[in-house]
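Request from the bench team (R.T.):
"We need a structural guess for the complex before ordering more flavin mononucleotide. Sequence and SMILES attached. Just send the tokens back."

Command: build protein-flavin mononucleotide structure.
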Amino acid sequence: MPPRFGPEFQDELTALLAWRRDVRHFRRDPLDEDTVAELMATAQLAPSVGNSQPWRFVRVRSAELRESLAAHADAEVVRAGEAMTDERRATYSSLKLHGMREAPEVIAVFCDDATPIGGGLGAATMPETRRFSVVLAIHTLWLAARAKGLGLGWVSVVKPDYIAGLLDVPQDWRLIALLCLGHPVEPDVVPELERRGWQARLDWRANVSER
Ligand SMILES: Cc1cc2nc3c(=O)[nH]c(=O)nc-3n(C[C@H](O)[C@H](O)[C@H](O)COP(=O)(O)O)c2cc1C
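Reply to R.T.: structure attached below.
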């Protein structure tokens, strides 16, 4: 019998969605292996085009690789700031845009653009759907982590080809995200970029139209 999700669960789900944060401030205490394995397994419940499951999770265990990733992100953050106005750059420079030096887990997520799994169904006409599928797996992981009181941070201030080379992954794997995972220093219901004056959430009506 499938479970029935009652009103109490529905409220809790809404709370989970509201409290899911992009986290950059992590406590350093490690996660136990069972928790990580459980989260990886849950992420694989995501939908994928043709059931191709093209997500490839690479756990970065080497301290040296982690430092190379963090240093690369730091350099790219500075480079991106150069194109901004002085005023905007002042706020931008005060933001913390990754927690790769503190998070107990750093995970690079790739899309295998050449996977034969799923027989090309859907992906033959829209190859980008493989990457959409990987994004869904990440979001599934994001929510599952939050449900366990953990935080996840999505780091995109990097050059995908550089990361693929650094981590020495197969040529057909495209970087979708670098993820930081661990206990957040301080959970908050408001996005950090909103709290720090960069960008607030829009009223949902601003993004819904009718034809
Ligand atoms: C595709 C994607 C890429 C992102 N890249 C970064 C990033 O490089 N650094 C960062 O601090 N946050 C990054 N974020 C997090 C967003 O800043 C965050 O989702 C947004 O500010 C809303 O906050 P919330 O996730 O806490 O609701 C990214 C989010 C997404 C979905």
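Two things stood out. Helices lie at 7-19, 33-43, 63-81, 86-93, 128-147, 160-167, 192-195. The first helix runs from residue 7 to 19.
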